[in-house]
Amino acid sequence: MPDAMTTLLANAGLSDLERRLRDEAIDETTILDLDEGDMKEIGLKMGPRRKLLTAIREAKDRRTTPGADWARSPPPPPPPPASTKLHPPAKPAPGLTVGAKARLRKKAAPAPVTPAPAPEAPAASNSDALECPITYELFVDPVTLEGDGVVYEREAIENWLRRGNLTSPATGVALKATQTKLIPNAAVRRRAAAARSRTARAHLDAKTQVADDATARIQALEAENAALRDRLRLSVDRETEAAAKLREATRENARLQKDAKSANNYKNRAKKATARADELDRVLASVLAHSQHLEAELATLRNMPRLLVRNTTAPPVTPGDGDSAY
User: Fold this and answer.
1) What is the distance between the alpha carbons of residues 182 and 144, in angstroms, rounded to a whole number?
2) pTM above the 0.70 mark?
3) Pairing, β 182-184 against β 142-145
4) Per 3-state DSSP, what percentage of the chain is helix, strand, and coil (rounded to 5)?
5) Are 21 and 93 in contact (CB under 8 A)?
6) What is the pLDDT of residue 105?
7) Rounded Cα gap, residues 197 and 183, in angstroms
8) % of the chain at pLDDT higher than 70
9) Which domains does the chain have, with CATH numbers?
10) What does 65-119 look like in DSSP terms, one character per residue?
11) Which of 24-28, 126-130, 248-252 has the lowest mean pLDDT?
12) Sign of CA dihedral 198, 204, 210, 213
């Protein structure tokens, strides 16, 4: 069987919020102690926040009625809010769930004071808001409902009233048939148009910024591509130059090898010539020695007649005899 919080949320059309509230440790014992700050902390938008605040306020009113089921009874007209805080509540410790914070405030707060019955009164105007509490969208044709003073989008509130609803969609206040007049709100229309213009301008500026960033990126990429092409061209030129130098070095090496071969040939020929010269020197030395020997023998032979003449005892030969001295 659903508990009181489930029933309260279902009657307010907020059943989709139950899981989020229970995740924050909120149950039927603490839901009536929630305030707008708690709902903002949970992340509720303005429309669901107002509906839940209205349902909580009406449930508190029904709880003061003997025998009434605060979660199921139909909502009576709410009394004007009465201040019941005699001193500020205790400050919750950081890191607590919203339900735990609500329990701490409940313990620190004084006993609730039952407000005195009051006549019906419309809720405070939302003339500062720029979104319809029904559609949650920016106003296009804002009108003020005479019965509650709240600004709505014309089409949304007309559809609400056309379905036979005689309560305020924002506050739940009962409306009389004479309080359904819709009053155009030019001030809100101007502010909504200005907000729409600012939003469009912001979107345009964002798109322009994206386009500028893309253009700058493209230019940077083009510059980088040009630099890479230049580096590639320079690299090709260097490789071409290196290849030419390599070919020249190869030719020079071939010439050097040829010259080295020629030098080896000349060296071998020089060695052979040196060996031949050495051989000729030896031959010449031998010939010279032999010549000297022959000259010595010749000198001996030349001196031999005188020796013979000196040593002989024969009479001298008279010239003219025709005979030799020998």
Assistant:
1) 6
2) no
3) antiparallel
4) 60, 5, 35
5) no
6) 65
7) 24
8) 75
9) 1-79+90-119 (1.10.150.50)
10) STT--TTTSPPPPPPPP----SSPPPPPPTT--HHHHHHHHHHHSPPPPPPPP--
11) 126-130
12) negative
